[in-house]
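# nightly structure sweep
# worker-07 picked up a monomer target from the shared queue
# config: single-sequence mode, recycle default, output format = structure tokens
# input follows
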Amino acid sequence: MAFVAGLWSPKAYITRGLASRISAKERRVISLHEQAHICRRDPLAKFAFSLLTCLYPPGVRRFLQAEFELAIEQLADEWVVQRYPQPAIIAQALLQVEKIAVNAQDRQADDAYSYFARHAVERRVHHLLGVSEYRALPVVTVVVLAISATLSSAAGVDVLHHLFETLFLH
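# output follows
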């Protein structure tokens, strides 16, 4: 498992189970990727975004959170490319961790599973290698849409309340 934990002073962790199954290059890529999340304060951003979307219907909430997570994963991947300019090796590390995660799930083992691998790996690899026309919505766009929808919903509640009150009481 490779992950970043902590909202105010996040720290990166790579378990021995994962570290023992990957090469030194892949370990470097994963470490840089997790460092990107620390520098960008992504755990705090994900927490804040989850608060913004907590009142949405489950399907909408899952979609928005998945797009937000894909966007921050792609930004972390780009951060890694700036420091380790070998996109093919970065893509290889993503695929290797995904392979380990799938095998771990098949065996019901947790020691090699990584959240690093669970974010639309195919889309991330295509983006890294420049073969994809699709890119996640920019983080700012997703946040603005979530805030706009929240404010619109809040503003509309009063109108709907009075409409139903008028219909049923008069």
